[in-house]
Design a protein that fits this description.
The protein contains 7 helices and 14 strands. The protein is an alpha+beta fold and 254 residues long. It has one domain: 4-Layer Sandwich (Deoxyribonuclease I, Chain A). The strands form 3 sheets. Strands 3-4-2-1-14-13 form a 6-stranded mixed sheet. Strands 5-6-7-8-12-9 form a 6-stranded mixed sheet. It has a two-stranded antiparallel ribbon with strand order 10-11. A hairpin with a 4-residue loop joins strand 6 and strand 7. Helix 4 runs parallel beside helix 5. The termini are close together.
Length: 254
């Protein structure tokens, strides 16, 4: 089973740039998209209802053209989740998840901590609530979660750690949450296969053409609960897929 995640930075834009069909050729069993910036009814038919997939969407309720996530899956889920049951954290269309026979999958666009202390506090509250939420689900069956976490975990995960030590996305309190996720028994699947590999990023600033110079950040992740460790077969970062300031990532399980 192959799972692919991508922050598309506008799903209609991906389609308009003719990047949708090349992306679909990754042929995942499950696709998770973040920052779709659209309502379901605004999407082109081939994006809203791709052949061979069940499609689910969760858009922002606070403002149009902001945030939003999508989940495409070849197998019909047992149940689909679009919130954590916390109204103040569920309004921005940041989560969509599904229950399958052997595990849960959650696709999440985690908040960015920029924009002042209130948004950083919101991000940290979302982090804590999400971990509590999936830990309850994990009592039933294993959990995989993916998406744009908006934080680089270790110095190896960004090109310029010293310069960004006081910037959101690499603050100690943000990174501590990822430590907590690992302590709780979730595996960073990319680091599972490449524990010391440097220069592997999934996001680059577009304004400075950082992708051309590979001055990037690894802020997109697949985490799998420990129960799935023996099933992990491959983790990849797909730098050859363009159209966004992020590139897709994937994990393959037996």
């Amino acid at each position: 089973m192959k799972l692919v995640s991508w922050n598309v930075n506008g799903l209609r834009a991906i389609h308009r740039k003719e990047c949708w069909k090349p992306f679909l050729k990754l042929n995942a069993d499950i696709f998770g998209l973040q920052e779709i910036k659209a309502e379901e009814e605004q999407l082109p038919e081939e994006v809203r209802n791709p052949k061979g997939y069940y499609a689910y969407f969760n858009s922002s309720k606070t403002r149009k053209g902001y945030s939003g996530v999508a989940l495409y899956t070849k197998e019909e889920p047992i149940e689909v989740f679009a919130d954590m049951g916390i109204p103040e954290l569920d309004q921005e269309g940041r989560l969509i998840g599904a229950e399958f026979k052997d595990f849960y999958v959650f696709n999440v666009y985690f908040p960015n901590g920029g924009g002042g202390p209130e948004r950083l506090a919101y991000k940290l509250d979302f982090y804590d609530a999400f971990l509590e939420f999936i830990e309850k689900k994990r009592r039933v069956k294993p959990v995989i979660f993916t998406g744009d976490v908006n934080t680089a975990h270790e110095a190896i995960d960004l090109a310029r750690p010293k310069e960004n030590a006081k910037n959101t996305g690499f603050l100690p309190e943000e990174r501590e949450w990822l430590d907590e996720v690992v302590r709780a028994g979730y595996i960073d699947t990319f680091r599972h296969f490449f524990p010391t590999k440097a220069g592997s990023y999934s996001y680059w600033d577009m304004k400075t053409r950082a992708r051309d110079r590979n001055v990037g950040w690894r802020i997109d992740y697949f985490f799998a609960s420990q129960e799935l460790r023996k099933k992990l077969k491959k983790a990849e970062i797909h730098k050859n897929i363009f159209g966004s300031d992020h590139c897709p990532i994937s994990v393959t399980l037996s």
